[in-house]
Every structure is written in structure tokens, then in C-alpha cells.
Amino acid sequence: SSGINAEYGQLKYNIEVISEYVVKKIPIPLRDFTSEPRLIVIRSFDVNKPGSEVDSLKGGVAGGSLLKGVLKVGQEIEVRPGITTKDAEGNLHCVPIRSRVLTMFAENNDLQYAVPGGLIGVGTKIDPTLCIGDRLVGHVIGSEGSLPPIYTLIEIQYHLMRRLLGVRTEGKSKGAKVDNLSKNEVLLVNIGSLSAGGRVSAIRETKNKHGAVDKRAKVILTSAVCTDVGEKIAISRKINKHWRLIGWGTIKGGQKMAI
Q1: Mapping DSSP to helix (H, G, I), strand (E, B) and coil, where does residue 65 land?
Q2: pLDDT tens, 101-137?
Q3: Residue 150: beta bridge partners?
Q4: Whole-model pTM?
Q5: What separation in angstroms does the CA of 208 have from each of 121, 139, 212, 214, 249?
Q6: Rounded to whole angstroms, how far apart are CA atoms 47 and 105?
Q7: In whole angstroms, what is the distance from residue 34 CA to residue 196 CA?
Q8: Residue 16 three-state SS
Q9: What is the DSSP string of 111-135?
Q10: For the chain, which terminus, N or C, has the lower number of CB atoms within 10 Å?
């Protein structure tokens, strides 16, 4: 059973009780060490100081969490979607980035290999200008040829919340009701560490043999995303000039981009 554990971090009161609770009550998730490595990027930056000499320049650094597999120093890696451009007709084109792991570290510890769990920093040979200012956020790093496809349109099976959370309402009402998705509506979709805009191009509702409603929608994304079928997503809608969470979904397919 869960309880309330009080602690005072500044004076270091009761921290050992919190640590014991975390260790004994929260189960350790199963780790996958046999699959090809896949790292989701949540930060990226340039570690070179202004005025550095050419010979001392270092490649970009990506920070994130390893979802599965084992990543090793010296390993050849691929970053998807990579460098994204638009042609004259507005179509997206992606060129994956290929590089090598030069260093890895967790806090102040140098690593020779990394396993799932926790945050790690990966030093690469990637041009620092591609990593500066979190430019790689939302990208996926893995072994060459092992990463999932890149999508510009996704088909999702979605579920909407009954009422909005965190929105001020008048009187004693429990909150505004969440309306169903509509065609050509603009949404914010969170896939992994990527936040991408999307426009609903089609909606379909069917009932299965048990009477449950299967809601599906096709969403055209404003930016390319590297993801797998079955990946969970969060859906937000702009309400009173703020993005509000309205539901969640699962990717069931989509339009793959040719590389």
C-alpha cells in the first residue's frame, strides 16, 4: 500500500526513508540487453567554447535515455530523422546522420558502454552546429540500419479524456467537456521526446463485435518523426491560447518517407 512520506531535502531529514521506499516498493522494470540499441534524445549541445582552435574542436553531444540494447564507445551510429529540408513544393526530405560514439558519460563518470535506464551523454563526431541549442531533440540514435522508419503522416487509434484538466471553469462545474476531433483541426502531438504540430486529414469510427467504439484518425505532421508502429502518443489541443492535453493514442501505421 502507498503512503505519505514527509522529507525535508535542505536539511536532509527523512531522505533515507524515501530511498528505502523507492528501492522496496517500486519494481525494477525489465531491461532489454539483446536488441539493437535505441536512444531517445532529449538534449543536445555544443561543448566547444568560443574562440576554440580548429584542432581542439569536439563533436556534438546528445543527451538522452537508452530504451533498449547496449551502446558502446567506438560504435557506428545513425541519427534519424537527421537533416530535414523542404523542396519548392513544401515536401519534407530527410537525410539520416551517420557518426561514431567517441565518449559516453553519466554525471561525472566516463562509460565504455551504456545500458537501459538513467540519462547518459553521448559524445559524437557530428558537426556541433547540428547539435547546438537542442537541435537534435526528438531524434533517435541507434545502430546503422536498425532504426524504425521515418513518418510524415501517421494513423492513430485515439482515446479522448472526458473533461479538460487544468482549465478554469465557472461555478461548480467539473470542467469543460472534450469535443471529438474534427477534420483539418490542428493538434500538438507528442511522440517520444518530439513535440510536433499535426493536421487531422481523416477520421473514422467503427464498432467492434463487443460494441466498443474504435476511433482512428490520420494526422499530417509538420515535422518528420522516427517512430515505430505501436508507439504511444499524447494529443493536445489549443484552448484559450494554451496547449491542453485532451487524450492519448497509439500509432497504427502511416506514410513512410523514402530515404
Answers
A1: strand
A2: 999 999 888 999 999 988 999 999 999 999 998 999 9
A3: 226
A4: 0.83
A5: 46, 36, 6, 7, 18
A6: 14
A7: 31
A8: helix
A9: ESEE-SSSEEEEEESS-GGGTGGGT
A10: N
